[in-house]
Design a protein that fits this description.
Length: 230
Amino acid sequence: MTIVVIPTYDERENVEKMALAVLHCAQGAELLFVDDNSPDGTGDVIERLRRDNPRIHCLHREKKNGLGRAYVEGFSRAIELGADRIVQMDCDFSHNPSDIPRLLAEDADLVIGSRYVPGGSTPGWPFRRRLISRLGGMFIRFATGMPLRDPTGGFRCWKVPALKKIAFQDVESAGYSFQLEMNHRAWKAGCTIREIPISFSDRAAGYSKITPAIAVESFKIALRLRFHGK
């Protein structure tokens, strides 16, 4: 069984549309939201959806405690629910639910929806943002040695045995650099990794949680992985 795990914080405007889109595009899959006690009432919307559809689940956390920890708890709950594959994605439609079947069609331990392999794109991004993202990816590849074009991409499909192999519960990164550290663990463990092209769009509703500190954190984690290996 495939379970799609989506962390949420203040996504009231997106969550119902996202749930409908995911369940339509990923036939047979189930959906697990991990809500960090959103003050805008996102959790209440999810509970209403859950009552109406047995394919929808929700894990309510007491407070906002980092994207990485949300995914760790979400992955653990998905495995408890019987998942053998787990898709992770954002709730703001920057990741297109119609791409989920393409992720699932690949036979690899980890499939990454990549902005930077041939065919991938970032429509609507200003030049400065594209440049910073590209240079950041180049730095991460140089620092860690990982041969990934999009080492921080967050639209991915994991086989559960691979997650268990890399001991995902022990990942130290609590924030967005969780994506980077998980990729590094999978690569070092010899997992098969494939990148497929996606179009990554800006959110249509709600507000971004990305801050400059997130980029700084990723650079620090990349250097730690280079010099300490974990």
